Amino acid sequence: MTRFTVNNQPVEYRMDPRTPLLWALRDASNLTGTKYGCGTGDCGACAVDVDGTLRLACQETIGALEGNFVTTIEGLSKDRSHPVQQALIAANVPQCGYCIPGIVMAASILLRNNRNPSEEDIKAGIPNICRCGIYPRLIGAITDAARIARGDAPVSLDAPSQVVEPSD
After folding, report:
1. Does residue 154 carry a pLDDT above 90?
2. Is residue 164 part of a domain?
3. CA 101 to CA 29: how far, in whole Å?
4. How far apart are CA 40 and CA 1, in angstroms?
5. What CATH code is carried by the domain that includes residue 114?
6. What is the dihedral of CA 111, 114, 118, 122, to 10 degrees?
7. Is the C-alpha dihedral spanning 146, 152, 155, 161 positive or negative?
8. Domain match, 45 and 19 both
9. Domain count for the chain
10. 2Fe-2S ferredoxin-type domain: from which residue to which, for each copy (predicted)?
């Protein structure tokens, strides 16, 4: 049996310790926000937060995570209130949405470690592949998310694609 914490809840998986985290999350815990993309660790669709570090769930075995804390897209915020989620929605970034959970997780970790990332920092911190080609809008949205996280600008979800500037 393998024990660790997922989205602030202790879990015990009665699965082979060699089982990839991706399948434990999706099949045993019914946390389907973490997506299967390539299975080789190249696309980032399965990105999760393990103790504050971006990890690819298709490449991590549950046995290697004993005692760790895992956060999935479902655990980031239940109501899409995380600054990254707000900014992506406001900028109308998601298209098909398949890569978005992994991108949100990568961006949330980036912003936790760097509250004012440059465009180069964002490109380096978001290794995910998006087949829809959202990259230009994604850079701006993550920049906006950093501003939201710092309290420099609230987001209005009633008016998509608008970061509301604070009034003086």
Report:
1. no
2. no
3. 17
4. 25
5. 1.10.150.120
6. -50
7. negative
8. yes
9. 2
10. 1-76
